[in-house]
Structures are given as structure tokens and as C-alpha cells.
Amino acid sequence: MPDDLYERYQAAHTAHRSHRATCTDCTDTGRCPIGQRIFESFARLQDAYLNRRRSQR
To answer: What is the CA radius of gyration of the chain?
Structure first.
């Protein structure tokens, strides 16, 4: 059975990479408002996934 949290985390990572590749306002140290929202979503999902993995050990 696929892990929904993992899939959402990976989709958010893909969205972040895609946005970063095409947005001229986003840099390594700053993000446009849309890029910031995408990055925050990715970071939240990544944290949730990694915390769940740690608790399963």
C-alpha cells in the first residue's frame, strides 16, 4: 500500500523544484510569495514524514 504522506511530500518537493527552476524572483536566499508557500508546504510535509519515520524506530 502506498504511503500517502510520502507521496504528498515528494509531490511538494517536485512542485518546489519546478517552481524554482522557472521563477526569476526566487533565489537560494529569498523566495517570491508563491515560492514561499510552496517551500513551506514542502518543509511541513518533509518534517511530518521524517518525524513519523523516527517515531517508528
So the answer is: 13
